[in-house]
Design goal:
The structure is a single chain. The protein is mainly α. The protein is 80% helix and 0% strand.
Length: 512
């Protein structure tokens, strides 16, 4: 069979009950057809929702179809819970190691050095989401092995091109120009930007490929290697007195470990067919998913910047590196643990929502209503005790120099609560083919955050008060985003229900 027409699916033991149910229904249909031929009765007119003038299916056939659908829903629900649990365990172990090692790092590095790391990782986060030009977002939507293989190849080529272009720009800029556009000593460390961009972009591509193939256990392993390898490398460089360079290289080591693990398990030894990759196939795939580079690539940059990453760059320029270091501690204490659950749910939700948006919008709405309340409850359970115990826990765990970070931690809690709730379902509008609507919201949020920060600086507002203002802006925009997602899912569900009776009548009409 031609690879373009071969349906891609990750085969495993979990699909055997579904295949057995299908075989039982087919056997029942054959027996019913034999009985109808023996009795040779004329079909009765249909008076059900399938429409008048159609042939009425028997009670046994309808019961078998309903049983098959219920079995499929149970299998989908159990698979969702199992995959989410696997991702949660791996992410929890990795992020727990990162949080546990944080007190050691705060005693080896100063707040200014953590400020440099925050600006560096913020720049990589903004640039990294567009390293593949948005083609990695289309990987979970691949319907055939041909599409999957060529989407991965096209994404890898895009990462190499963007990293090379950024490297040429960094090497061509003089030291004076770097000092003006970068808040920190980057003249001797300019090689870190393209190197880190290649690692971050490559990891995004590998995670998308693993999500499409259902290899959530492998993604969970990368969370562990990143959570342990990165901080341990930073501790080693800190003992040697590497400073800013040690923090940045340790971050790159953590990202690289996860990227190569997924590359070996999913691409090189996984279900991706290497023979399906060709230059013609890559051009065909890029032309088919051209909307992702045109819209999703730059909208992801706006989304990443608007999620709070842009604040590290703005506050570093307006209020100094020390305040950014304090913001980094708040992110490590509050946002990282919340990221354990939200990242786990995001990978599983995106993998299932991509299929549900095409085949079963009702399931998509059900998953959306399950994920948002659970994540909201978990975020509140974590954020409230942390804020109540911060005055005693911060000096004990991180040292007396970090007591000044407590007001920043309180100010950022509201923003982290809103972001933690939105993050698991953040790709909903893209999966519903509402890229334009997502882009409008992302640009509005980013614009409001930039205006709030610039206005705070202009009117002499302190850094902590400016953080409070930005947190309120973030929370309001995230609530609006959740409402927009719910409305879009509701409209898609209503549209699918309106077309269901016509599809049902055509499927149940007996063949002559």
């Amino acid at each position: 069979m031609h690879p373009e027409r071969q349906r891609f699916q990750y085969r495993g033991k979990k699909h055997r009950p579904m295949r057995s149910a299908i075989r039982r229904v087919r056997g029942m249909g054959i027996r019913l057809k034999s009985r109808a031929q023996i009795t040779d009765r004329a079909p009765e007119p249909c008076v059900s929702a399938c429409g008048p003038g159609r042939n009425q299916p028997s009670i046994a056939a309808r019961f078998a179809v309903n049983r098959l659908r219920a079995s499929g829903k149970r299998l989908a629900a159990s698979a969702f819970v199992r995959n989410a649990s696997i991702m949660l365990i791996g992410t929890t172990l990795g992020q727990t190691a990162s949080v546990v090692l944080a007190p050691v790092l705060t005693r080896l590095y100063t707040a200014e050095e953590f400020g440099f790391l925050s600006v560096y990782t913020a720049a990589l986060a903004i640039l990294g989401v567009t390293a593949a030009l948005g083609l990695d977002l289309a990987i979970p939507l691949a319907a055939t092995e041909f599409e999957l293989a060529n989407l991965i190849a096209a994404s890898a080529i895009a990462v190499a091109i963007t990293s090379g272009l950024i490297g040429l720009i960094m090497w061509s800029l003089p030291a004076a120009a770097l000092a003006q556009i970068w808040p920190g000593p980057l003249d001797q460390l300019r090689y870190l930007i393209p190197l880190g961009l290649a690692c971050v972009g490559g990891y995004y591509v590998m995670v998308a490929a693993a999500t499409c193939a259902g290899r959530f256990a492998d993604i969970a392993r990368t969370r562990i290697t990143q959570g342990i390898g990165g901080p341990l490398s930073q501790i080693g460089f800190g003992i040697l007195g590497a400073g800013n360079e040690g923090l940045a290289i340790g971050f790159i080591i953590g990202q690289t470990s996860g990227c190569f693990l997924l590359l070996s398990r999913v691409v090189l030894r996984g279900p991706v067919p290497h023979s399906a990759v060709s230059w013609r196939g890559i051009r065909t795939i890029v032309a088919h998913y051209i909307r992702f580079p045109l819209l999703a690539s730059w909208t992801r940059v706006v989304d990443m910047a608007g999620s709070g990453t842009i604040l590290y760059l703005l506050f570093s320029a307006y209020y100094g590196s020390e305040i950014v270091g304090f913001m980094f501690l708040g992110e490590r204490v509050i946002a990282r643990p919340l990221l354990m659950v939200s990242s786990s749910l995001l990978q599983v939700f995106s993998g299932e929502a991509g299929r549900a948006a095409r085949e079963d919008p009702v399931t998509l709405g059900r998953r959306f209503r399950q994920v948002v309340p659970v994540q909201s409850l978990f975020a509140l359970i974590w954020i409230l005790p942390v804020n109540l115990l911060a005055n005693r826990a911060v000096p004990l765990l991180f040292g007396d120099p970090w007591v000044a970070a407590i007001p920043c931690l309180h100010a950022l809690s509201l923003a982290y609560l809103a972001l933690a709730v939105v993050h698991p379902v953040s790709t909903t509008l893209q999966l519903l083919d509402r890229q334009t609507l997502a882009a409008i919201w992302q640009m509005l949020r980013l614009s409001l955050l930039v205006v709030a920060t610039v206005a705070s600086r202009r009117y002499g507002i302190s850094a902590v008060e400016a953080l409070w203002i930005c947190s309120v802006v973030q929370a309001v925009t995230c609530v609006g985003m959740l409402a927009t997602m719910a409305v879009c899912i509701r409209r898609l569900t209503i549209a699918s229900r309106n077309t269901a009776p016509e599809q049902c009548s055509s499927m149940l009409q007996p063949r002559r």
